[in-house]
Amino acid sequence: MKRNVSLAEISDGRLYGENDMVKADCRGCQGCYQCCTGMGCSVILDPYDVFRLQQVQGLELKQLLAEIKVELNVVDGIILPNLRMAGEEERCVFLDAAGRCSIHGSRPGICRLFPLGRYYENGDFKYFLQTGECRESRRTKVKVAKWIDTPDQGRYHDYLCKWHALLSKLEEKVVGVEDGEESKRLNLLLLQSFYLTPYDVQRDFYEQFRERTELWTMQQ
To answer: What is the per-residue pLDDT for 68?
Structure first.
């Protein structure tokens, strides 16, 4: 989801790589779950998030949609899945009664990032620290890679760049003509290719993503 603001408005003015130290560690959040409420449709799932939920939780996207734990919304002209917020507090549906994440081991990349964000430029990206988003004022420094807590950081980084590029190209085709037949076809193809078709959790995700990307490109 794009934010039409400058980095100076929302960050400490620095860009970070995976091996940099950043003041992001909330020390287990200590019972706070503010960042898991009122997020609207902003906790968007990418294909690796879907794979991880299927691999760790045994939950396929079709099941999550049927149980109304995930919903579909239009983001920059593209239909994408996001975690649902519910109740008066607009809590994430995966928060338990104590306000703790029930899928913490397979939580989406956006959740792993917080309070970091990604800044994409020239086919690559860096991380930035969002200021004013986390109410914990005594955060400590932690290496970005450790904070994100995702194996194979190099492959993960490369995958995110490719996924962002794929979405950017699709956005160019559909923005402004969302109701057109071609736009609908491409959106449905994206959902089927990368989200609704179950992954083989015994196989390498990145290899499956490569195969699906090649098939997606052929069907454009």
So the answer is: 94
